[in-house]
Amino acid sequence: MTRYNLSAAYRAIEKECNRRRGRFDHIREQIRKLSIRREEIDWDIVRHQKAFDFVKEVALQTQQEIEVRVSDIATLGMTTVLKDPYDIVLEFVERKNKTEGNIWCVMANSEKIKPLDATGGGVGNVAALSLRIASLSLQQQQGCMPLLILDEPFHFLTRNYQPYASALLKEMSDMTGMQIIIVTQYDEIEQYADRTFQIEKQGQHSVIVE
Predict the structure, then answer these.
(1) Helix axes 123-138, 162-176, angle to 10 degrees
(2) Using an 8 Å Cβ cutoff, are 73 and 133 in contact?
(3) What is the value of pTM for the model shown?
(4) Predicted pLDDT at 4
């Protein structure tokens, strides 16, 4: 091999080495940047996990407070009105990564049944109203008095229980600060009302008489 050929081969090898060195430096720089990015992502994961754990803890505490408040108010309704009352229990459960609430009527023997399956004396009416008031009380804003308008809320309630239902509405109104307006044809429901109005038809018009 001539000197010329050796020089050309050397230059070619040198050029290839430089090319590969440049490629190596580029890859090394990319690895350095990716390592920094990985550290940032790892730190983000840690922060997000801490935030998730904090939110989960707050949510759990809130759920527990809601469970107690709703259960207490709803159970008050049942014990005030019914002779053989049920306890109303709200339970939060997780299903498919979602939190859902189950509402149970708990009998004296600790058997759990759904409120709509409870029978006798208008249990469904009392449970539904008690839960509605409990739910609205959770949405109450400071300085804002909530208002609940009911049209014959105890239509299916046994007649001799209706005075107790009236007492229940009065007690819940005082407890929650909620103003309750009721439309009813039953005198028993009026017993604990602060004010009553009667609608009378006079000719072609209806007149409100206090």
Answers:
(1) 10
(2) yes
(3) 0.56
(4) 56
d(CA 179, CA 143): 13
Question: Which tokens go with 76?
Answer: 């008050």
pLDDT given for residue 121 in this prediction: 57
Neighbouring residues of 89: CB distance < 8 A, sequence distance ≥ 6: 67, 71, 75, 103, 104, 105, 106, 112
Q: Tell which residue, 121, 118, 184, has the closest CA to residue 169.
A: 184
Give the closest residue to 120 by CA, choosing from 149, 95, 156.
156
Size of the chain, expressed as the number of residues it contains: 210
Give yes or no for a contact between 208 and 199, defined as CB atoms under 8 angstroms apart.
yes
Distance in angstroms (rounded) separating the CA atoms of residues 152 and 197: 15
First to last CA, the chain: 124
Could you say which residues of the chain have pLDDT below 50? none
Give the range of the structural domain holding residue 196, as residue numbers without chain letter.
Answer: 55-209
pLDDT 10s digits, 155-177: 777 788 888 888 888 888 887 77
Task: Evaluate whether residue 34 is within a structural domain.
Answer: no
Q: Residue 116: inside a domain, yes or no?
A: yes
Closest by CA position to 101, among listed 144, 142, 71, 146: 71
Kindly state whether residue 200 falls inside one of the protein's structural domains.
yes
pLDDT of residue 170: 85
